Amino acid sequence: MIEVLFYILSTITLGTALLTIFSRNPIHSAIYLVICFFSIAGHYLLLNAQFLAIVHVIVYSGAIMILMLFTIMLMNLNKEHEKHKPKLIIIAATIAFCLVALVLLAALLKTKPVVESYYNSGTDFQSIKVLGQVLLNEYMVPFEFASVLLLVAMIGAVLISKKEKQKA
Amino acid sequence: MEHILKEIGVETYLYLSALLFSIGVFGILLRRNAIIMFMSIEIMLNAVNLLLVAFSTFHQDASGQVFVFFSMAVAAAEVAVGLAILVSIFRNLGSIDIDNLKNLKG
User: How many Å lie between the alpha carbon of B41 and the closest alpha carbon of chain A?
Assistant: First the structure.
């Protein structure tokens, strides 16, 4: 039962990721990417990381993809005017993809005997309570730095995208 | 309900993440549209996040999930600044095809 669910979710993830890359219209790409992110949130739920699944949906599907859709619509890109690419680029990209996938999978297939089987000790390690304690005790300094990073990114985004004054 | 890692093992997540990461690399190499390249970067980041969560569950350690929080924060900051740069490029050049960005070529 749970196995079937995993394979359905994986098919959706990989299929929509490929459709994101191949669709000519950027808006369609964004919609497929939203579906891909939702299926990854489903994977998090299967792994019993509920809080992370909710945060993933809020941050990725909610914030990042809305930002991308706004940018696409701001630039009026919702039509297919990408130039025809030379055949060489397509062939080179396909060969590179096949090689990367081959090397990664071949390297990972060898790890199978090393990985021991899963053993559940029954301790609570991924409820919101435990995660909050780990985040604010062990990882206090990176947490503060993340807030500084977000502040700087916000200021930078406003500064960069601001319209420059026309010089007379 | 039995646990997912007992049923299919953590190595299936390794294969899924590797394939997802390769798809992201493929998108970067294939497309010339800067926004689609951004989306491919997001796909690669998500592949790594998925693997972090899978191994965090496998080792029953909360640190992996905390790492995913930080990686999400960095991804959000990256997209905000990157899209601002794209808007600025679009204002100056009228397109976001990265083949047009060769003013420094001389």
Answer: 11
**Whole-angstrom distance between the N-terminal and C-terminal Cα of chain B?**
64
Q: Is residue B25 part of a domain?
A: yes
In chain A, where the domains are located: 1-84
| Domains: count for chain B | 1
Q: Which tens digit of pLDDT belongs to each residue from A55-64?
A: 999 999 889 9
How many Å is the maximal CA-CA distance in chain A? 72
pLDDT (tens digit, 9 = 90+) per residue, B37-47? 999 999 999 99
Instruction: Using the structure block, give the residue that is written with the tokens 């706004």.
Output: A70
Q: For A1-84, CATH number?
A: 1.20.120.1200
Rounded Cα gap, residues B11 and B52, in angstroms: 13
Q: Is residue B88 situated within a structural domain?
A: yes
Chain B's closest residue to A104, CA to CA, is: B18
CATH number of the domain bearing residue B38: 1.10.287.3510
By the CB < 8 Å criterion, does A27 face chain B? no
Measured between alpha carbons, how far is A37 from A57 in angstroms, rounded to an integer? 7
Note whether A29 and B34 are within 8 A (CB). no
In a domain, B16, yes or no: yes
Which range of residues forms the domain containing residue B48? 1-94
- Provide the 3-class DSSP secondary structure of residue A155: helix
Determine, yes or no, domain membership for B31: yes
CB-CB neighbors (< 8 A) of A113 in chain B: none
The ipTM of this complex is 0.91
pLDDT, tens only, B70-90: 999 999 999 999 999 998 888
Digit-coded pLDDT (tens) for A39-88: 999 999 998 888 999 999 999 988 999 999 998 888 877 666 666 778 88
Query: Considering only CB atoms, which chain B residues are within 8 Å of A160?
Result: 81, 84-85, 87-88
pTM, to two decimals: 0.89
